[in-house]
Design brief:
Layout (H helix, E strand, L loop, with lengths): L4 E10 L4 H8 L5 E3 L4 E3 L5 E5 L3 E6 L5 E2 L6 H12 L3 H9 L3 E9 L10 H9 L2 E8 L7
Parallel strand pairs: 7-8
Antiparallel strand pairs: 1-5, 1-6, 1-7, 2-5, 3-4
Length: 145
């Protein structure tokens, strides 16, 4: 089996919450945010037709993709992240109770087949924190770009 690279981010969607509240509660600086009702913007920051239907907040939890190894696995990094987010469990439960969604977004990059084991403990911790997980799988390395 081949090695793979991975990167984690945290994404939150909520019907109306101000993204500044999310930043304050999590003490994590986001890369992208918008608030429900605000005018939509294109990638250049120019206003386009319509407004956002929900609030959005996204923060990268790693600066660069990491190569999996015996010392650095996705599950090991996932468990570290979940331990850090444990202090925010009441807030994450609130997001879920208010019809919002908090998810760990995992981008995976590999050239060949690989196995991605996730233990019952890590999956149970995701559930306790009311976190969904999304796997975004790419058949190449981000370094190829």
């Amino acid at each position: 089996m081949s090695d793979y690279e991975f990167i984690l981010s945290l994404r939150i969607r909520h019907p109306r919450m101000d993204p500044s509240v999310i930043t304050e509660e999590l003490s994590i600086d986001p890369q992208h945010t918008w608030k429900a009702g605000d005018r939509r913007l294109d990638a250049a920051g120019d206003a386009i037709e319509g407004s956002y239907r929900e609030s959005y907040w996204m923060a990268r939890l790693m600066e660069h993709p990491q190569l999996s190894s015996e010392q650095q696995s996705l599950e090991g990094r996932l468990m570290q992240t979940l331990a850090q987010l444990q202090r925010s469990q009441p807030f994450l439960e609130r997001i879920s109770a208010e019809q919002g969604v908090a998810e760990l977004h995992v981008s995976l990059y590999a050239r060949e087949e690989f196995t991605l084991p996730l233990s019952a403990d890590s999956l149970a911790q995701l559930g306790r924190l009311r976190l969904a997980i999304t796997l975004d799988i790419h058949p190449h390395s981000p370094r190829d770009n």
